[in-house]
Amino acid sequence: MHNVKLALSVAKKLKFPTDDLIFDPLVFPVATEQKQVESTLETVSRLHRMGLKTILGVSNISYGLPDRSLLNAALTTSAVKSNATFLILNPLDEQVMGAVNSSRVLFQRTELTKFIERFRAAKINKKLADDLMNAIVHGNVEIGARRAKESLDGGMSVQELTEQHLAKALETVGEYYEQGKFFIPDLLKAAEVAQSILNVIKLYMPKGAQRGKIVVATVRGDIHDIGKNTAAMIFESAGYEVVDLGKDVAAATIVRAVRKFKPEFVGLSALLTTTMPEMENVVKALMRAGLKTNVIIGGPNVSNGYAEQIGAFGAARNAFEGLRLVKSKNRATR
After folding, report:
1. Distance between CA 161 and CA 305 in Å, rounded?
2. pTM of the full predicted structure?
3. pLDDT by residue (tens digit) across 173-218?
4. 286-308 pLDDT tens trace
5. What whole-number distance in Å separates Cα of residue 257 and Cα of residue 263?
6. What fold characterizes domain 2-110?
7. CATH fold of 115-200
8. Is 208-332 a CATH 3.40.630.30 domain?
9. Lesser CB count within 10 Å: N end or C end of the chain?
């Protein structure tokens, strides 16, 4: 503990508050330093008894090993028991977060009420999510909009609602249509519900500074524009100016828009595999016109392989993948 005493001595000389110090006992991969973890946890306990704060990089423990979540969760439980103040971990890892919440109940005895509330909230959120999916698939606008608002008010993120529920429900609708289980009226009803949900989501999206222009369109022959509308909303919330050409858009119209607006990106959407070839027609039309822009193809059936084949910049199966592609290109050109 010599280094701890030295740090406290330096802090005292600098008149730096001891309460603002955070000590970081290193977590080594168990694959190479199996005995080290006991020393690390003992250090955390001793620092806690001294009234000092600590932080642990949990995921280091599992580096280079399979089933990392299991090992991370095990260390998380021990770290909470050892009274670590802060933990660096993946908040989206359900196993790890389960270990955090349950170990606080067992060892800190202060989280029992919160644990029960989380359990109840999880059941409620699952029901809301199921209702939301069913509302989209079966075309119930009122329930869809209401459940979207309740989910967002209950703490569900816009990204989770969009990626895990809205996008998946629309994929299901598309699959039913291609299998002959759904027909055009079913698609239109699902689109109406999805649009009502997008209107709710817009109220929860932060606005950013303008970063550039993006032209978006659903290609000719395809009347499904919910995926395109979702992408447009996400791009706008990230600070991009979006020019939305609508659905069933001819290649010539897209070429004219690119010539007029000079966007950095063009987003082409197609729900059905039968309309995907039109994406290649658009890319070729832009090339023939001498217009250099980055084309991102989007839809449930697109792939990076297909994007490369037709000369597009990249493929995105959902709106957030599209946004990541846009940001990656912007970072690369800086």
Report:
1. 28
2. 0.49
3. 877 877 888 887 887 788 788 888 888 888 887 665 567 899 999 9
4. 999 999 999 999 988 899 999 99
5. 9
6. TIM Barrel (3.20.20)
7. 1.10.1240
8. no
9. C
